[in-house]
């Protein structure tokens, strides 16, 4: 695969096609504040063409009727190409949205391929067809592709979020219109070329970058059978309303305000390394980050000292530098938003333990210092609202019941952590936290497990067999006992 770095077309029906207008989206480096590329800004007409291509490919093409083994073979070929392109993908994502390159090589590049490989393995054992018997009859239960999928992905993990949506959709036999984020669309061109070279039939995957108006046209399009969206809770509510009106299937992975709950016997060295890796990950721009640290009051001062030392050890700077751990915010507007929350924390009476400003030595780029607040109250904005930047709060608690109430005391429920040297005790606490996933002592749940949110953090689950279920419709066919015996 030889990537030419051209971003002047849309990927529709297996071809790089001219857009219907000359409107473009400018991709601005969050490091240099300079435009590094432009891509077409897809219009409603472009979305119509993409949906029509996906519709034709689904209704009359080979993909939806191909055997699962045939689809798996194409995705395995894509996996090989992703592996060959890992460094290019990491560099592209780092350039367009500012993820530190060392993290980008795993989170933005290798992890998407691992997700693909895991879902292929899941598909091989998935119950695509099953015989079920009861006292009054028996049925062949089949799982069939839901149809045309609109996949709308965010800028913070553009390739990973794309793969989490399109891989299970493709394995199920669906066709897809991918709408990448205006802030980070460049990596979607690499994804399109990889799947094209892997042998995906024309029209099965279509890629159209667009602004909000054309995006809403896509999610409300009568030719779309399902919408899968990752992004803000506000946008998710709007998409849910649109899909609800049309009775269109929808999966929403939305915001988070997750808690790291430290029990009184926790290993503080382990805690601090997890805060480094899972609370400030991607410069704080990850929805599952554990941004609220809950600690027993008698251990607060010790944790404060450790967190200050941790932040002081995290280089802030150019994301292309392998030593950098905190990069810039994705846009100037997003930096202002994060700074607005820092100002709100101060106004509400919270104490800045460390950070709270812009790095003095970085005159260019949309940087925010890693910031930790103490003396916070549950009602404060910085506790209740998703900041999506390198800003953490630390709250003391008296007993475990209070800690669980604090952990559950927001509108969100996406992720969380519990720390204890007694793993079974930690699991017992994790069961009481109202969220989609909880990591005990930082142990990742892996891609065979479902991930997703409750309450304002979303609807539905992605990854694992549940991730495949989101892209199929179950059909029951009544059959004779004799045929049931032969099919069993």
TrEMBL record:
<dbReference type="InterPro" id="IPR016162">
    <property type="entry name" value="Ald_DH_N"/>
</dbReference>
<protein>
    <recommendedName>
        <fullName>aldehyde dehydrogenase (NAD(+))</fullName>
        <ecNumber>1.2.1.3</ecNumber>
    </recommendedName>
</protein>
<feature type="active site">
    <location>
        <position position="253"/>
    </location>
</feature>
<dbReference type="InterPro" id="IPR016160">
    <property type="entry name" value="Ald_DH_CS_CYS"/>
</dbReference>
<comment type="similarity">
    <text>Belongs to the aldehyde dehydrogenase family.</text>
</comment>
<keyword id="KW-0560">Oxidoreductase</keyword>
<dbReference type="InterPro" id="IPR016161">
    <property type="entry name" value="Ald_DH/histidinol_DH"/>
</dbReference>
<dbReference type="InterPro" id="IPR029510">
    <property type="entry name" value="Ald_DH_CS_GLU"/>
</dbReference>
<feature type="domain" description="Aldehyde dehydrogenase">
    <location>
        <begin position="16"/>
        <end position="477"/>
    </location>
</feature>
<dbReference type="InterPro" id="IPR015590">
    <property type="entry name" value="Aldehyde_DH_dom"/>
</dbReference>
<dbReference type="InterPro" id="IPR016163">
    <property type="entry name" value="Ald_DH_C"/>
</dbReference>
<dbReference type="Pfam" id="PF00171">
    <property type="entry name" value="Aldedh"/>
</dbReference>
